[in-house]
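hey m, so remember when u said the tokens were messed up on ur end? i reran from scratch. heres the input so u can diff it against urs
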Amino acid sequence: MKQILLLLISVFIISSCSRRSYLPSEKKWDYTKFRSSQKTFNSADGAIKFVDRGEGPVILLLHGVPTSGWLYRRMIDGLVEGGHRVIAPDMLGFGSSDSPKGYDIYSEENHAIRLLALMDHLKIDSWTHVMHDAGGLWTWEMLEKSPEKVNKLIILNSIIYEEGFHPPMRMEPGIFSKIAMWGYNNGITTKTLLNRLFDMGLNEDNLTKSDVEGYKKPLLENKTKAMYYFFTQTCNALPIYTTTLQKLKVPAMIIWGKNDEMLQWKPQSLQIQKDLNISDKDVHLLDATHFIQEEKPEDINDLILKFVSKES
């Protein structure tokens, strides 16, 4: 008990010393309005919220950990204006979606099963698939089950191989990790976590208060169970999908923030390009870090729209 008390005191001191002033809020990116625009799919494990906008060929935008569909808010309208129907889910345990009790419920396989169920619910048989961060793992699982669903694959700073994987933390399952999650969702270390992620994940932090609200509010709503699985299981035993990648026959493109310290391109670049048969012309390294959707949304949209317009 004394150790737990000391831990709580230390994280409180750290969070108290970690202050950051964000830019004034922009009305355009209002998280409450964003949530009100989301639809609901009742999966077997809980409600999944998602954005569904536009008409035309479908583009699915898949987030990672610990983000949500909010990460793509600067990209959605541009893709819709480009003639596409855009689906951007909050995966179970993230964003506006439910966060039920359980551990293995947040495994890569179960995320994949729910994603396929969502698209089946929407009667979408195939789509262009855009993924980021841990969304890569959920995608590889999905493609193991249904490779025919994706007609084009676009990879944004995603988890692929151990060689490039340097997560901001790795935790062991148990009381101390649960206390850390408790601190994140009770406001004790919420700001500390976000500050660290933005420091590591952005070249320059120009986020406004309303931008940050979309990342902060889910944490304060106890949306940390899926994150707990990721940091205590996935980060310690990264699933291997080499065979899955090598078997894929899907046109793929890389858009990567070249300054990303958490997911590094160079150590794994040759293997990724070889396994997915990606030519150099379809590899785009941007002057950005991890959260490239925040830093280069227009550039990413331009690359996506050009890539999907090409004949396979």
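this time it looks ok to me. The beta strands are 39-42, 47-53, 58-62, 85-89, 127-133, 150-158, 252-257, 283-286. if urs says something different then somethings off w ur setup not the seq
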